[in-house]
Amino acid sequence: MRAIATAILIMLAVGLAACGGGDDPTPSPTASMTGTPTPATAAGPLTSIRDAPFEDPALVGPLIDAAGGGQVPVERVEFHDLIGNDGVEEAVAVVESGGTMGDLGAGIFALDDGHARLVQFIPVAGRIEVRFDLVVAIEGVWADGDPQCCPSRLRETSYQWDGARFVAITEQVVPNEDR
Do residues 45 and 113 touch, judged by C-beta distance below 8 A? Predict the structure, then answer.
């Protein structure tokens, strides 16, 4: 019985230490206490958007909030020169529903004074792709009688930077060939 009690006390102590139950009040280098952009590393400001910590809730939290929930898998972050065609990459981070809704939208992040900054959120219920310098949203268009899983048509909306924000430049409805 004493061995079980000792084991429980050791597990509690390890759990408290892992959860920040120690005496060190210093926040992690990526914690945002003020809501301002957060440096990605303790070493200093970012020199490339590719170095931004897209696994950090302090960075992707506002994007997930804008989408109304979901998750941002690191493997769904792509890097493209979308703003200004100046050779400087921006990041497109896709918010996934984690279920049958597919993608919930995409956030475009740019480097701003050494910090990753969310430039714009593009909401969509479907799938997000990047084609050349366009963010393309593909959403289902259901006709009467279409099963919930399989819309008979798809709406493709292409977004491009207009100098101030991403705007829809084309929209087309096409048959869903994967149906």
Answer: yes
* Residue in 154, 157, 160, 159 with CA at minimum distance from that of residue 176: 154
* Tokens matching residue 97: 């529903």
* Residues 178 and 160: beta-carbon distance below 8 Å: no
Q: What is the DSSP letter of 127?
A: E
Per-residue CA distances from 172 to 101, 128, 169 (Å): 21, 15, 10
**pLDDT 10s digits, 32-73:** 222 344 444 445 699 999 999 999 999 999 999 999 999 999
Tell me how many degrees the CA angle 127-128-130 measures, rounded to the nearest 5. Answer: 145
Q: Is the pTM of this model over 0.85?
A: no
Residue position matching structure tokens 């959860």: 19
- If one counts every other C-beta atom within 10 angstroms of the C-beta of residue 109, the result is 24
pLDDT at 11: 36
Structure tokens at 126: 């479907």
Residues near 74 by Cβ (< 8 Å), separated by ≥ 6? Answer: 54, 55
For residue 124, what are its two tokens? Answer: 């969509």
